[in-house]
Amino acid sequence: MGIKFGRIALCGLFLSGCVGQAPGGIGGGPGSGADAAPAVPQVILYGELKDVMTNAPVLGAAVSAGATATATMTGARYEVTVDQQTLLEMKASMTGYADTYSAELLTEAADNQLTTMFIVSDAVKQNLYPAGTTDDPTLGTVHIDLQSVNGLATLDGLPLANVSLLQNGAPVGTVYFINNQGLADPNQTTAIQYGQKTRAVVINVPPGPFEVNVLEQGVPTPQSAKGNAFANAVTLIESANAAGELPLTYDAQIGAILTGQDCGGCHSGNGTFRLTYSELTTRNLLTPADSNAPLLQSGLGIGHPPTNWTATTPDYLKVLEWVEAGAPEN
Ligand code: HEC
């Protein structure tokens, strides 16, 4: 309980990137074996709905999870039952407030996930549009809580050029920092706190999937958090992806797993090859981009010396997610 709680507390803020594993990766997915598919277990998400700027509880809103599930509300508290291991978006709506989406959340294996949701009032949404700009109802707004990669610090002092929002790899929208009065400010070229958070806003974002790229000072690889923009609505997201985890690249995470105890004990160059990125690619060990990749087959001990990995080992799941994502080096 302690660990689960700590993790949820860290990632609860905007429900963003709370997990490390890809949906439906391993076993048990549609078409993977047994005819009688077992019923999908369900989990409960619950928590409080708060105003994004004041942190005050907001009563009387409607909250939904994904396309179908509607939460029951008691005061500002909601409770909703959803399929386990589902990627979903939470939405809060209410008169006097903008429709507010939380970044995608993969519901975890654990039941009873505590998640705080936030909603943006119409007045606050106006403040996200500097004088001279227009809130186009066909476009979306993205509000970013700027945090360090480990999620432990706000990114005060970050230059504006280090924040961008990409769709299909190209920057979209206009990025502003929120100044110390809670207003999007074109003159605020370094990040500053408001309401104990360091915030940026991106206005005029075409509806659709986006990636937030934040280059934290002193950190070589940009953070990239993913979400969806919706017309005439605000999407809330934290800059640090997966609750403050490093980007899912060989350099940031995977290299350490493959040269660590489970594999690196043998694959250190004596007798076997080293599990470096160039070895993995020249030996074609990363394709196909799924659990059939030789790297993952070997890790599971199929025709391979025994290791500690099974299909549910967290490190295995992380490497699988990385391979499925195209195995980026950095
Ligand atoms: C007990 C020692 C040992 C451990 C532990 C070990 N390996 Fe290996 N591995 C070998 C040997 C020996 C070979 C075959 C020699 C070679 O190809 O260099 C090999 C080969 C491989 C190959 C090449 C397979 C192919 O199709 O060419 C991959 C991929 C691999 N290991 C991945 C891993 C991963 C991932 C881990 C950790 C989960 C791991 N190994 C742990 C000893 C080990």
Q: How would you characterize this protein structure?
A:
There is one protein chain. The chain has 330 residues and is α+β, with helices and mostly antiparallel strands. It has 2 domains: 2-244, Sandwich (Immunoglobulin-like); 250-324, no CATH class. The chain has helices at 2-11, 122-127, 250-258, 261-264, 277-282, 294-299, 314-324; strands spanning 42-51, 62-65, 69-70, 72-74, 77-83, 87-88, 90-93, 97-102, 105-106, 113-114, 117-121, 140-145, 163-167, 170-171, 174-178, 184-185, 193-194, 197-205, 208-214, 223-229, 233-238. The strands form 3 sheets. The protein has a 15-stranded mixed beta sheet that branches. A 4-stranded antiparallel beta sheet has the order 14-13-19-20, with no helix packed on it. A two-stranded antiparallel ribbon has the order 6-9. The chain is globular, with a radius of gyration of 21 Å. The model is unreliable at 1-34 (pLDDT under 50). It binds heme C. Heme C (HEC) binds next to α4 and α6.
Descriptive keywords:
330 residues, alpha+beta, Immunoglobulin-like, 2 domains, 15-stranded mixed β-sheet, 16% helix, disordered N terminus, binds heme C
